[in-house]
């Protein structure tokens, strides 16, 4: 009887231990709509909902850290966190520092120009990314417009720093303001994350460069010390794609 009691207690401890939630510590930026941003002192966005779904599916308690503009890859490698999510594009340099999950989202960055002025006409002739960069280098003081706090700003600044200088990027809080600036000639081209055909009736002077020249694929950065977590995240993402959860989350923010 005594042995049975011990076994029952021991089994109860095991069950309690198995059901106990573990912490999933993830760092994010909180600065890029619609992926990770702060509203009313709360983190929201596509990436926030995705990582919450992963935490739920893995029976984990999600602990989110907001790092703002801090380099998230460096954060994961230097601080005791499990990973990072915030519209992160895997590249060869980052892959040496962290592991990456499978791709959970791909985004095309569309480029609008003013088709009625000289700069716009020249830029419209660019057939690929290299030609576009070459044309912009030839044009004096190319001004790149982007929407503040979105992926378009991130990409615009990355390219401006790489090929021009950070001052080449002019940010706008609202898309409509950016479209007006492009129409009036205050900027030379505008980077937008989503398809901009909805604006063509209101801004007939604007034209889209034939194909999206910039594209980004996003993945979750996972610490090199967490191979089991990487496998688990990939399996959950696979399930989220299959059952439509991933698409449902993206659709929720499609009009932002």
UniProtKB/TrEMBL annotation:
<dbReference type="Pfam" id="PF00497">
    <property type="entry name" value="SBP_bac_3"/>
</dbReference>
<dbReference type="InterPro" id="IPR001638">
    <property type="entry name" value="Solute-binding_3/MltF_N"/>
</dbReference>
<feature type="domain" description="Solute-binding protein family 3/N-terminal">
    <location>
        <begin position="23"/>
        <end position="256"/>
    </location>
</feature>
<protein>
    <submittedName>
        <fullName>Amino acid ABC transporter, periplasmic amino acid-binding protein</fullName>
    </submittedName>
</protein>
<keyword id="KW-0732">Signal</keyword>
């Amino acid at each position: 009887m005594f042995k049975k009691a011990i076994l029952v207690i021991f089994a109860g401890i095991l069950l309690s231990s198995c059901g106990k939630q573990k912490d999933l510590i993830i760092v994010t930026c909180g600065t890029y709509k619609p992926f990770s941003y702060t509203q009313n002192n709360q983190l929201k966005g596509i990436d926030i909902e995705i990582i919450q779904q992963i935490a739920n599916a893995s029976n984990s308690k999600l602990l989110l850290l907001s790092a703002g503009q801090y380099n998230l890859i460096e954060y994961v490698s230097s601080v005791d966190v499990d990973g990072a999510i915030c519209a992160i594009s895997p590249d060869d340099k980052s892959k040496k520092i962290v592991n990456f999950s499978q791709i959970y989202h791909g985004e095309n960055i569309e480029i609008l120009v003013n088709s009625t002025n000289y700069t716009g006409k020249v830029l419209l002739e660019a057939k690929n990314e290299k030609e576009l960069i070459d044309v912009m280098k030839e044009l004096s003081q190319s001004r790149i417009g982007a929407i503040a706090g979105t992926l378009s700003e991130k990409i615009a600044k990355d390219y401006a720093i790489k090929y021009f200088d950070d001052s080449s990027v002019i940010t706008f809080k609202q898309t409509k303001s950016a479209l007006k600036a492009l129409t009036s000639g205050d900027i030379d081209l505008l980077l937008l994350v989503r398809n901009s055909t909805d604006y063509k009736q209101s801004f007939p002077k604007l034209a889209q460069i034939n194909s999206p020249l910039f594209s980004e694929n996003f993945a979750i950065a996972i610490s090199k010390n967490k191979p089991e977590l990487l496998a688990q995240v990939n399996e959950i993402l696979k399930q989220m794609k299959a059952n439509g959860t991933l698409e449902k989350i993206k659709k929720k923010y499609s009009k932002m």
